[in-house]
Structures are given as structure tokens and as C-alpha cells.
Design brief:
Blueprint: H1 12-18, E1 22-37, E2 47-49, E3 55-66, H2 72-80, E4 102-109, E5 115-128, H3 129-133, E6 139-143, H4 149-161, E7 164-175, H5 187-200, H6 209-219, H7 230-241, H8 262-268, E8 279-284, H9 290-309, E9 326-329, H10 338-345, E10 351-356, E11 359-364, E12 369-372, H11 388-392, E13 397-399, H12 401-408, H13 419-428, E14 429-434, E15 438-442, E16 451-455, H14 465-475, H15 485-500, E17 513-516, E18 536-539, H16 556-559, H17 571-579, E19 583-584, E20 592-595, E21 604-605, H18 622-631, H19 647-653, H20 681-692, H21 697-704, H22 708-730, E22 742-755, E23 766-776, E24 779-787, H23 805-815, E25 821-825, E26 838-842, E27 851-852, E28 855-856
Parallel strand pairs: 8-12, 8-14, 9-12, 19-21, 22-25, 25-26
Antiparallel strand pairs: 1-7, 2-6, 3-5, 3-6, 4-5, 4-7, 10-11, 13-16, 14-15, 15-16, 17-18, 18-20, 22-23, 23-24, 27-28
Helix pairs in contact: 6-7, 9-15, 10-13, 20-22, 21-22
Length: 857
């Protein structure tokens, strides 16, 4: 039969002729197809009435006039997970089937708006007719095989595919040339075939060499790829031909995060958890170690994701794929159009692609991306206005956002450079810029906030001393890994687990050694041969790491620095040191902080460090706040500043629940200052009083006739102090736990919504801000607020819906389970979770009856 198929206008002989060169194969996973209703109907299938008794293997269930909506998503999910019982009626099975079987489903739209559901069952073994009838929601029919089972099976599925509508097929047609489907081949067959292609396949298509080879090998019975789909073989050959053009996947790297300078690692720590959404750009001076840092970060992320999905034995840590971060290293960034740069840095996009002369570069959603370039304007760097002592002590500062952009000016493509394109890249990229004196850190944001600046002039290399030697060995072709590589990976794994969860407190860091043999100019020449590498001074970078306690045993982290300082002084040197008086070497104070080992040749005392100048004010950008808090831990306050109660001392003067703990590195009121910018403590205290009284910030500068900056600074610091108090106070909140049962209430509240991009489901583009509150009755101070992650909704939706079980379960298990709690909530199903020693009481919100004209409305 030629032309289109029309219902009732053909016979079975026409169908047999159409399927003569086809073969039908069962497949393990369903394939889903959706179209309008096809030209054929159920009447065109070769069916007979269902028998009254006996046994049967293949049958069809017809359910006409289905008035309900088609739950396509549920059907797909249930078929893919093999949970057929979860398919709602009448689209699934009426009872649960035992043993394996194949199921094809077609759902067609009728002219009256209702649906017709046709289900074709294929069981490998005979089953009783009554059992088969119990699986059907509608009318069961059997097939008219006419003595030709194989041919009629092809005819049935040929007609079935032309019914149209929404179809879930578990059978597929193949021509004789295409061969059997992929799932019918064993893993050994696939591996052997692909190995054969890699070893024997041509790499170029000169004089149709590839086409000739594919045609011969797929049609030769003795070939390992006999009857393989030619398209698959051609694609494999194209991939092999492009190996010389595309960047190779690297799975071997000798460094870890343990080898990175502590200042750089501290700056990167709060950014790690956002690398699934933001890219990392490393700009600046060549030779500082941007490439090894980029590769170490990429391998750390790769190892973390592999451990997370539990595929350590199947996937190697590497660059490229979502488990393989991608690196653009030392390319010419100014020649890259902003269109490509935005595609590369948009990590949160579902899929990004850049067309190139060899084909296309593609990145999947969440695949970390890093680029390293040297392009920046050295002459545009802002002048260093820090005092010498502050600069050498590692005191951080900030530069204006405009000055920072001026330094990056040469890095952008001049053809389409404009403010909108530049800010689009900055919104997607965390940027680190190293100059000869500073490291600039700008977290990804569209806001023009001041940029953090960290002094680096005493040691510009991003790697530790012995790590640089390992990197040079690897770069020159060395293949052996460092002896302590496994220990470094274990340290990195523990560090990454905390950082990726957003837990930046108590992170371990390796001390950065600035220089070695620094005392060689201050001791007598006779002692110089005895001086070893254990005399290394460690940079005091605003207390990036905690000072070692001489009285306590060294921790594993401190012992791990033995690769930098491992030699011990000789016995003769220690003996001679006992006979000599202590030597006091006059050095410029405040530069160094501590020695990594004991003295040699005599006791060497350093002058105590002077009091540090005040820390810079806190800015609004959240990631920058985290950077500053980490880089300024344990700040020593200036004696001229106002003493506010904090920590344990404040607990003696005030009640724990009422006083604000600002922390050791945080003062709400700044120091008085000097010159024209001087603001008296009385004025600052007045501003703080107004802030606590909820006076609007924009009104206060006019009321008190003071500068906006000091008002903004005090208001911001007060907000931060309150947030810190809440975080510290919540750690002490406990529910129940006593001999008697305690009442605890829980409920959620919606605070607003906003539009987001959702490429998978464009209609669900509304993100809600939803919070959960838990409080013990009779104790308002026990209120705990937890931010939830509700699902996306339509813009006209009245709300995100009730709390979900996946959000409530971790909260309930952490704070309520096993504590003798009577939980009072609304009727949300998530709250009904069964927990040990937790009884649920459902609270019904009764609305007041309103009457209009004497009738209830």
C-alpha cells in the first residue's frame, strides 16, 4: 500500500507488506512520544473477544471516554522506575502483576474532549484468563494471531504506533541493516566494538576513507561492529578525529588545596559552595601560580562530587563534565566576544554552548568553570594608602569598584564592550586579581560594592615553598606523585565537606611560610652551618590561623607542616645555646608573629606587636562580609576604642537572652577617628540609640546633622550584631528533654515572591520566600526560624503550598525527636511524620462565620 494510512481503508496484507523488512525488539526502558491523534483507531488492531477460560500471554485493555486529565509526569516517572502500581487509574493496572512483562500505553484525545486509553500487555509466560482480566480497568481483548505470531506481532505494533496521541512504548522497530537495539548487546560486546574502532578506525575522511570503512565493517559478519548503526560508528570516528583539536581530559594532578597559600585559600573558602552557579576568574601577574590554583580547585571539586555520588571506583577525578570542571587557561580573553564569555561563565544555565571552528564547546548545568588570564592594567591600580606597619601586618582594605574595573579594562573584548556586558560577566564570576602588592577579591554580584584587598607583597606565590618544587617537577614531565599526596587528599576531603555545606567555622589551614633562614644575618658566622630550615617565620595575616599553643601537643594539621620545616637542631647546637646568654635581636615590630620551631644558638626575643589599627567597616555584600569576618578573626581592639561587653564577660553583666554579643572583631560604634572625619563617641552613641529605636535611617542624618556614611555604618553593624546574636543564641535553644511532656508549636509563613528563570518548566517561574518557625509554649525566647526551599509555582499561585516532608524531616529529627514533645501544627501532611517521643496534635484554624443579609456567606 502506498500513500498515507487511513482507518478502514487497508487490510492486514498491506500491513504485512509494510513490515516485511522490519523487526520489532523489546526494550528495557520506555520511550515516550507525543503527537496529535493518528490516522488509525482501535478498530484497526487485529483483536478478538476475550476468552472465557484458559490461559493467555498477550492481550489489550481498552478504556474509552476517560474524563480526567492525563498525569503524564506521573506516568513517565512510574514507568521509568518500574513502579507500575503508582500509575493512577485508569491509566495503569487494576491489580499488581507478578513477574516480568512489557507494557505499551497509548492515550488519544477524542472529539468530545475525553480520552481513549489503550494498553498492550506482553507476558513471557502463560497466565490464567481471570488473572489477566483482573489487570484491566476497561474491556479486555485478545489478538488474532492467524498462525503467524512473529509477523502479527510486527503488525500489531505497526498499527499501535499510528494510533498517535501520548504513547509510552516498550517495543522498537529496526531494519535489517540497523540490527538489534543497543540494550540487546552485552557490555563486553560494546567494549570490544569500541576498542576495535579506536584501534583500527581511520582518523581522516580523505577520499571517503571513513565512509568506506564504516560501510565495510558494519556489513561484514566477521567484524566486531557487524550490524552496528552506521550513525553510531561515524560519530565515534568523528570524536576520535577531534581528539587532536579539543583539550584533553586530565586525571592526574600532583597538588591539592593543602598546597595553596593560606591567604588565597581563605579568600576562596566562602566561594566554594557557589561554584555550581558561578564561575571563577583568576586575573593578574604571570608566574604567581594561577594555573596550579585553578587545577587544584578543579580537582578538589571533582573529588568532592565523585565522593558525593559514590562513584569512586567508576569515575576518576578530572577536568570537564559536571564531575569534571572546565578550565580556560592562558587564552586571549580580549579576543573572546562577550556572547561566548557569558555562555562560559553562566554555570547555572541548563546548557551552554560556544560554536568554534572545530565544532562546538558545550557545558552542562552546574559544571564548574575556571579561567586564568594575565590581562590587566598595572597603571590603573589604586595607590597604596595603608601605613607601612598595617601593610606588613596584612591588614585588609577596600578599593572603589570603579578603580577595580579600570584595572580589568584590558581583559574585555573591545568590539562589544559596554557596561551591561561587563556587569553581566561580573554577575556570573567570582574574580581574584593578583598584582605585585595585593590580592583583590570580588565575589560575583551585579552590585557595585567596594572590592576587598589583601596585601601580598612579602610572598606573591600562591603555592607553598615545597609545593612550587613539586609543581615544577610535574610541569617538566614528571609523573610520580608526592609521597604525602594521599594524606593531603584526606585533609582536602575533610576541608571540602565543611566548606561545601557553608560551615566556615573552625576550618583548618596550613601556615604559610614567608621565607627561610631569616636569622642568618643576626647570628654569629660560626653558628650559620648549624642553622636549618626549621627557622621559618610565618606571616601574621590578620590572624588567618590560630596561634599554636606551646604547652599543648601539636595537632595533625601542625604536624603536616613538617614538609616545610622538618630538620631538627643538632645536640651540639643545643648544648652551646645553654651556655650563652639570651640574645635580643632588634627587628621592626609587628611584622612576624611566631616561630615554627624551638630556638637554636640562643634565645631570640622579638618585640611585642603594637596594638593594631581599627578594622575597616563592614560592607553590605554577603560574600564580602564572610571574607572580612574570616580574614579578621581574633582582631586585637585598639585601646582607644569603646569597650563593649562581649562573650563570657557580657554574660556576667546582663542576662544571656537580652544582651547582644558583638564578637571580638566587631564593634557597633567605631573609633573616634581624626581630622575632618572625626565623629564623637557621644554622637555615635546617639545614632546607635536611634537605630535600636527603629528610627528610619534616611531620616537620621537630617535630624542629627551628621554624615550619611557613619549612620549607614552603625546601622549595618547593628544589623550584623543582631544576626550574630541570633546565630549564637539559637545554638543554646533546646525543646523538651525534661521528665514531663512539653508543648511545641510549628508553622510556616510566606514573606514574598519573585520571578526566576526556569527553562525546564517556563510556567513555573515564581520563587517564594518561606520560613518555618518553631517555639516552645511559655518560652518566647525559644523561637527558632529556619528558611525553607519551597517549589516553584505559577505567577498567579496564592502561595507555595504547605511545608514538604523533605524540609520538615531534618528539622524534626535534629530538634524534636526523643525529647518528649507534644507538637501543635496545622493540617500539613509533613508534620504527621512519626518520630520517637513526639506526639502530634492537629490544630484546626476555624474561620469566623460572616453573615450577609442574614445568610452565611
Amino acid at each position: 500500500m502506498s500513500g498515507e494510512w487511513v482507518s478502514g481503508d487497508f487490510n492486514l496484507d498491506d500491513v504485512k507488506k509494510a513490515v516485511d523488512n522490519l523487526k520489532v525488539y523489546p526494550i528495557d526502558m520506555h520511550s515516550f512520544h507525543e503527537s496529535s491523534s493518528g490516522p488509525l483507531t482501535f478498530a484497526d488492531l487485529p483483536t478478538l473477544d476475550f476468552p472465557a477460560g484458559g490461559k493467555i500471554k498477550c492481550f489489550v485493555d481498552l478504556v474509552p471516554d476517560v474524563d480526567s486529565d492525563v498525569p503524564k509526569a506521573i506516568i513517565k516517572e512510574s514507568l521509568q522506575s518500574k513502579t507500575y502500581e503508582d500509575i493512577p487509574a485508569p491509566f495503569g493496572m487494576k491489580s499488581k502483576a507478578t513477574g516480568p512483562f512489557k507494557l505499551d500505553i497509548a492515550i488519544m484525545l477524542q472529539h468530545n474532549g475525553k480520552h481513549t486509553v489503550i494498553k498492550v500487555f506482553h507476558f513471557p509466560q502463560l497466565m490464567k484468563v481471570d488473572v489477566a482480566r483482573g489487570l484491566c480497568y476497561g474491556t479486555p481483548y485478545c489478538f488474532n494471531w492467524q498462525g503467524e505470531v512473529k509477523t502479527m506481532k510486527k503488525c500489531i505494533h505497526f498499527v499501535f504506533e499510528r494510533l498517535g496521541g501520548f504513547q509510552c512504548r516498550q517495543h522498537v522497530f529496526r531494519t535489517s541493516e540497523e540490527g538489534k537495539p543497543e540494550n540487546e548487546r552485552s557490555q563486553e560486546e560494546w567494549d570490544f566494538g569500541f576498542d576495535f574502532i579506536e584501534q583500527k578506525g581511520p582518523r581522516e575522511n580523505i577520499k571517503n576513507r571513513m565512509l568506506r570503512w564504516v560501510t565495510v565493517q558494519t556489513s561484514c559478519k566477521d567484524s566486531p561492529i557487524f550490524r552496528w548503526p552506521p550513525v553510531l560508528v561515524e560519530k565515534s570516528l568523528r570524536n576520535l578525529a577531534q581528539d587532536g583539536v579539543l583539550a584533553q581530559v586530565h586525571t592526574s594532578w600532583c597538588l591539592t588545596l593543602y598546597d595553596i597559600d593560606v591567604r588565597v585559600l581563605q579568600a576562596l573558602a566562602p566561594l566554594f559552595s557557589s561554584f555550581s552557579e558561578k564561575a571563577l576568574g583568576l586575573f593578574g601577574e604571570p608566574g604567581a601560580g594561577k594555573t596550579p590554583v585553578a587545577r587544584s580547585v578543579a580537582m578538589a571539586l571533582s573529588r568532592y562530587y565523585i565522593n558525593r555520588i559514590g562513584q569512586q571506583g567508576e569515575v576518576e577525578p578530572s577536568f570537564r563534565q559536571i564531575l569534571r570542571p572546565d578550565i580556560f587557561d592562558d587564552g586571549t580573553l580580549p579576543e573572546q566576544p562577550f556572547k561566548k564569555l557569558k555562555a562560559f561563565t553562566d554555570v547555572g544555565n541548563i546548557e551552554s554552548m560556544s560554536k568554534e571552528r572545530w565544532g562546538a564547546a558545550k557545558w552542562v548545568k552546574g559544571q564548574p568553570r575556571i579561567y586564568c588570564v594575565n590581562d590587566y592594567d598595572r597603571n590603573a591600580e589604586p595607590k597604596n594608602d595603608l601605613p607601612i606597619l598595617s601593610h606588613r601586618q596584612g591588614i585588609i582594605s577596600y578599593v572603589a569598584h570603579k578603580d577595580f574595573l579600570n584595572m580589568l579594562e584590558p581583559a574585555w573584548c573591545p568590539k562589544d564592550k559596554n557596561e551591561a556586558n561587563v556587569m553581566a560577566v561580573l554577575k556570573r564570576t567570582h574574580i581574584l586579581l593578583n598584582t605585585k602588592t595585593f590580592l583583590y577579591v570580588r565575589p560575583a554580584s551585579e552590585k557595585e560594592t567596594p572590592v576587598l584587598r589583601i596585601p601580598l607583597d612579602d610572598k606573591q606565590d600562591f603555592l607553598h615553598l615545597e609545593s612550587r618544587a613539586a609543581y615544577d617537577y610535574h610541569r617538566k614531565g614528571g609523573t610520580e606523585m608526592p609521597k604525602d599526596f594521599d594524606r593531603k587528599v584526606a585533609w582536602e576531603t575533610e576541608w571540602m565537606e565543611k566548606v561545601m555545606k557553608g560551615d566556615l567555622s573552625g576550618l583548618k589551614y596550613r601556615c604559610t611560610i614567608i621565607k627561610k633562614n631569616v636569622f642568618s644575618d643576626h647570628v654569629t658566622p660560626s653558628l650559620q652551618p648549624q642553622l636549618d630550615l626549621s627557622h621559618a617565620l610565618v606571616k601574621n595575616v590578620s590572624n588567618l590561623f590560630e596561634a599554636p599553643n606551646p604547652s599543648s601537643a601539636r595537632s595533625d594539621m601542625e604536624k603536616s607542616t613538617s614538609s616545610d620545616a622538618q630538620s631538627k637542631p643538632s645536640t651540639e647546637a643545643s648544648t652551646s645555646s645553654d651556655a650563652r646568654p639570651s640574645k635580643k635581636v632588634k627587628m621592626e615590630p609587628g611584622i612576624f608573629r611566631t616561630l615554627t620551631s624551638s630556638q637554636v644558638g640562643g634565645a631570640i626575643d622579638l618585640d611585642s606587636s603594637p596594638e593594631k589599627p581599627p578594622r575597616p567597616s563592614v560592607v553590605e555584600q554577603s560574600l564580602t562580609q564572610q571574607l572580612e569576618e574570616i580574614m579578621q578573626q581574633d582582631e586585637i581592639p585598639n585601646p582607644g576604642s569603646v569597650d563593649f561587653p562581649c562573650g563570657d564577660e557580657a554574660g556576667d553583666a546582663h542576662d544571656e537572652e537580652d544582651q547582644l554579643s558583638f564578637g571580638d572583631d566587631m564593634d557597633v560604634v567605631e573609633q573616634e577617628g581624626a581630622g575632618a572625619s572625626k565623629t564623637s563617641l557621644q554622637t555615635q552613641a546617639s545614632i546607635l540609640l536611634c537605630a535600636t529605636a527603629a528610627v528610619p535611617q534616611h531620616c537620621l542624618s537630617k535630624i542629627m546633622d551628621v554624615d550619611d556614611k557613619i549612620v549607614s555604618r552603625i546601622y549595618n553593624n547593628l544589623d550584623i550584631a543582631r544576626a550574630r546574636f541570633v546565630l549564637a543564641h539559637e545554638k543554646r535553644i533546646q525543646y523538651g528533654g525534661s521528665a514531663r511532656w512539653e508543648d511545641v508549636e510549628a508553622d510556616e509563613v510566606d514573606l514574598g515572591k519573585g520571578l526566576v528563570e526556569n527553562y525546564d518548566k517556563p510556567k513555573l517561574n515564581t520563587k517564594w520566600e518561606q520560613w518555618l518557625g518553631v517555639v516552645q509554649r511559655g518560652s518566647p525566647g525559644s523561637l527558632r526560624l529556619i528558611r525553607l526551599d519551597p517549589p516553584l509555582t505559577k505567577p498567579r499561585s496564592p502561595g507555595p503550598g504547605p511545608i514538604r516532608k523533605r524540609d520538615w524531616k531534618p528539622v524534626a529529627k535534629q530538634y524534636l525527636e526523643g525529647r518528649r514533645i507534644v507538637l501543635h501544627t496545622d493540617g500539613a501532611r509533613a508534620y504527621k511524620l512519626k518520630l520517637d517521643q513526639v506526639q502530634h496534635c492537629n490544630v484546626v484554624h476555624k474561620k469566623k462565620q460572616v453573615k450577609v443579609n442574614g445568610k452565611a456567606a
